[in-house]
Design a protein that fits this description.
homodimer; mainly alpha; Arc Repressor Mutant, subunit A; 0% strand; transcription regulation (chains A, B); DNA binding (chains A, B); transcription (chains A, B); DNA-binding (chains A, B)
């Protein structure tokens, strides 16, 4: 019977390794070595590296710091800004490396793995719907008056965020993230 | 003496293969087989796969369909929209695969290859400056009245575009690109 502790340590280790070096560059051997478990034990728990990676992306999306912003005193737009700020702080704390694992896996694998494509789509979609719900609350509260569809805006804002993290990996400074905050929260969500 | 034709065929083939399957998944062997040249000839022309990839990204940025929109009758914002439309058409024509090679290489390699990071930064920066110049012309022409820094807007619009192509690879439809056109050209650049 698979021991859950070995499985968990593989998932946790893979989350770190896939995020750090990417999917193709990270072998099952890389993961089992880093996890300190026998390579053979991997296949007691996962049929393939792909199956593991899909589970890792789902876990990454579910545990994102995003969900930790729950202060009921915040207005909807202030909450949204705080959510992006906490994500930005994690990224800056990593020295402008790694970016968003959902974005990384999507860029690398969406054309080549149907299970990963479906997981990336689901994770992005869930996140965009979360943003859209906040935008609807902002409109309800009179904070958002721009005559735009909150669903379209929610998806667009998420795309702009993913693009900002991508450029930040290349420039290795805060400029892309600050461009995002200025443009989204001053000029777009008005 | 290296034959230029072999070098050119390696660069052209690598552009297609890196775009199609990514950097790590594409070996020197993959490229030389696809190019129909002896594997040994590769190292007469390039020190490494990395050196080739950096040259490929520079070539991709320089030859992008973007530069083909030169109709002098277009207003600055109409020109910008036409430039993104021609890029979108290429992407849709590829069946929503591949995305932007600059974005792909940035996601995959910016943390791991200093020469690639520098090339991706330079390519994105050149493109963002091109957009900013058009936005300044739009302001000059009275087409753009939003009180935002054209340089910030130019970088942000490019990031949003890269993010839209990323999501489009996952959803495999036009929605992300249309979200981009609606939000950028109706609600942001006003």
């Amino acid at each position: 019977m698979p021991r859950h502790s070995v499985r968990d340590v593989i998932v946790e280790t893979a989350l770190g390794e896939f995020h750090r070096i990417g999917y193709a560059a990270c072998s099952v051997d890389t993961i089992t070595r880093a996890a300190g478990v026998p390579k053979g034990s991997f296949y007691n728990h996962f049929r393939s590296k792909e199956e593991l990676a899909v589970e890792v992306v789902a876990k990454y999306a579910a545990q994102a710091e995003w969900h930790g912003v729950t202060d009921p005193e915040l207005t909807p737009l202030a909450k949204l800004r705080a959510q992006f700020r906490v994500m930005a702080d994690v990224f800056v704390g990593n020295g402008h490396t790694r970016g968003c694992m959902i974005g990384n896996m999507g860029e690398e694998l969406a054309d080549h793995s149907e299970p990963m494509r479906a997981q990336v789509r689901a994770s992005l979609s869930g996140w965009a719907e979360d943003i859209a719900a906040t935008l609807r609350a902002a409109r309800e509260a009179g904070e958002l008056t721009v005559d735009a569809d909150p669903d379209v805006l929610g998806r667009f804002v998420l795309d702009a965020w993913e693009g900002a993290l991508l450029r930040a990996k290349a420039v290795k400074n805060d400029q892309p993230v600050e461009d995002f905050f200025t443009t989204v929260f001053v000029h777009l969500l008005r």
